[in-house]
Amino acid sequence: MAFTLLQSTLFSKPSLFAHKRSFAFCIQLSSFSTVSAFPSDKFQPHKKWRRPVASVLELGGIKIAKTEIVRDDPTNNVPDSIFSKLGMQLHRRDQHPLGILKNAIYDYFDTNYPNKFDKFDDLYPIVSTIANFDDVLVPTDHVSRSYNDTYYVDSKTVLRCHTSAYQAELLRGGHTHFLVTGDVYRRDSIDSTHYPVFHQMEGVRVFTLADWEASGTDATSYAAGDLKKCLEGLACHLFGGVEMRWIDTYFPFTNPSFELEIYFQDDWLEVLGCGVMEQEILKRSGRVDNVAWAFGLGLERLAMVLFDIPDIRLFWSNDERFTSQFSEGQLGIKFKPFSNYSPRYKDMSFWISNSFTENNLCEVIRGIAGDLVEEVKLIDNFTNKKGMTSHCYRIAYRSMERSLTDEEINDLQWRVREQVKTKLHVVLR
Question: How far apart are CA 224 and CA 302, in angstroms?
Fold first, then answer.
C-alpha cells in the first residue's frame, strides 16, 4: 500500500508504507494520449503517440517524449535529471543488488505461496493524482500531495510516489494476490540514504468469507495474523534467524497498522510497514465481502543493510568496480569500497524568502552537481531584529569514482550560488 509514502513523511524515509498508487486508471497527460499503466495486451494504449520532438524513452511499449514530461508550465516541476532516470529500472537487472533482492523476495513467495501471487515490475510510472493519492485514502491536506514533495507532470498527473498507485486498479481487475515493484519518485533531501528516485515493493492478499470462517476468528484478526506470519517468514528468509518485534502505528489506508522491526547488527531496523486494508478501499474496488492485508518496503533501505552499501548513489553507478561485485542469486554479498576520496565542503549563507523550502534548494543543487553532491546540511540559522531569517548550508561534494579538482568544485559552487539566488529568490550573504 501507500505505506512507503507515509513512512517517509511520518516516520523516517523510505517506504507511504511507501507512496500509494493505483492503476486501472488510463491516465490523461494533458498533451499525452490516454494510456494505461499495464504493458500488456489487455491494457494497451487506445491512441497512437504523436511524433516525438525531443529525446524519447520507451516504457512498456509506450514512447515518452521528454517535452511531454519536462515542460515550461507552472504545474510542472519535473527536471531533466529526473526524466533521465525514467526507464532505467534497476530492479529488473538480475545482477544488480536491487534486482537480486527483488528476486529473493519473489523466491520466498513462490516457495511458500506457489502460483498464488501475480508479479508486476514494469508498470507505467506516470499516474493520475487519483491513483496516487485518492484511491489509497491519502488525505487531501497531506504533505505528500504538495509540489514540494511530489513531481507533477501537470495538476492531475504525477510521477508515481509509491507502488500503491496501482492497488485499486489491480483489485478492480480481479487480482487478489499480487506483488508490485517499481522505481518511485519523490523530491527529497540530499544525504547518503536519500535520493529522488528509489525502488519499492508492495504486496497485497485478499481473503474471502470462507477463509476466515473456518478459523473461528473475525476477519480482521485472521488477516492480521496471516500478514504477520507471512512477513516474519520473509524477514527470516532475507536476514536469517533474527529477533523481531511488531510496532503498532497509523496509516490512513490500513487498520490496524504495523511496522516490523528486526534486531540486526546490534540495532533495531525498521523493515517495512503493513496492515489490514481499510474496507473503504476494498468497497470502492467492488469487494464489499472481502478483507485484505497489504505491505510496502523500500528496496534500497534493505539492500544497503544486506550488501553493506554505504551510499545510495552507488546503486546508480556504472563503474565496473561496483557492478562486478554482485552476481545473480547471491543475496548479501558484502560490498568492498573501491574509493577513499575525501569530501570537499563549501558553505553558502543567504536570507530566505517566505517561499523557501529545503527540498527546492536540494533540487537546484542536484540539477547542477548531480551525483557529485553527497550531502546538503543546515549548519546555522538565525532571525535578526528586522525579522529576516538567515540559513547557512554546508554542501559536501564527493565523487564515488574519482578525485575532484579545486577548479571543478569552485565552478560547481559558483553555479549553485547563481541558481539559488535566481530560482529561489533568496539574498546571498
Answer: 23
| Distance set, CA 3 to CA 34, 135, 164, 399 (Å) | 28, 13, 8, 33
According to DSSP, the residues that pair with 297 across neighbouring strands are 201
Q: Distance between CA atoms of 122 and 84, rounded to whole angstroms?
A: 17
* H or E element that contains 204: strand 197-207
Say whether 166 sits in a helix, a strand or coil.
strand
CA distance 323 to 315: 9
Q: What share of the chain is helix, strand, coil (3-state, %, to 5)?
A: 35, 25, 40
Cα–Cα dist 215/27, whole Å: 41
Each of the 429 residues of the chain gets a pLDDT tens digit; together they read: 555 544 443 333 333 444 333 322 233 333 333 334 544 443 333 333 333 334 677 766 677 888 889 988 899 999 999 998 998 999 999 999 999 999 999 999 999 999 999 999 999 999 999 999 999 999 999 999 999 999 999 999 999 999 999 999 999 999 999 999 999 999 999 999 999 999 999 999 999 999 999 888 999 999 999 999 999 999 999 999 889 999 999 988 999 999 999 998 888 999 999 999 999 999 999 999 999 999 999 999 999 999 999 999 999 999 999 999 999 999 989 999 988 888 999 999 999 999 999 999 999 999 999 999 999 999 999 999 999 999 999 999 999 888 999 999 999 999 999 999 999 999 999
Consecutive H or E run containing 82: helix 80-83
The rounded distance, in Å, linking the Cα atoms of 286 and 169 is 11
How far is CA 257 from each of CA 1, 298, 429, rounded to the nearest angstrom?
A: 11, 17, 47
CB count within 10 Å of CB 328 equals: 11
Q: Taking the model in full, what pTM does it have?
A: 0.86
Largest CA distance in the chain: 72
The separation between CA 261 and the C-alpha centre of its own chain, rounded to angstroms, equals 20
Which SS3 state, helix, strand or coil, does residue 6 take? Answer: helix
Query: Does the bond joining 343 to the residue before it have cis omega, within 30 degrees of 0?
Result: no
Q: C-alpha grid cell for residue 162?
A: 509509491
